[in-house]
Design a protein that fits this description.
The protein is α+β, with helices and mostly antiparallel strands. The protein has one domain: START domain (Alpha-D-Glucose-1,6-Bisphosphate, Chain A, domain 4), CATH 3.30.530. It contains 2 helices and 7 strands; from the N terminus they run E-H-E-E-E-E-E-E-H. The protein has a 7-stranded antiparallel beta sheet. Strand 3 and strand 4 form a beta hairpin. The protein is globular and about 45 Å long.
Amino acid sequence: MSQELQASAEKVWELIGGFNSLPTWHPAVVKSRTEGEGEGQVRTLELTGGATIRERLDRADEGARSYTYSILSGPLPVADYVATLCVREAGDGACVVDWSSEFDPDGVPEAAAVEIIESVYQAGFVGLTEKFGE
């Protein structure tokens, strides 16, 4: 999924590029804490409602304004989940945030798993749009 924002890619990446920054822009994330540094570090996200998700930073590329991460554990009905978050220039002072993933459904039909993951991304895009506009 993608969202265009009326801000430079550099400015948006400053906000979302940190692996521990989700609470600053995603409305479903209350807290984030990390263990370790750089690639391989693990973040624990506390969600509204009290659930937690543990994720590992697999790859980070500051120059490309992107990082790839995996879910280690959590309440989402997915297995083997790997996602990439990326910010790219769109011209005229705008940028596009791309959030993509691959996963297997776990305990639910594939369409239901896709809908749940898309709703997570959409909530994040709403948070970013509130900060930067579209």
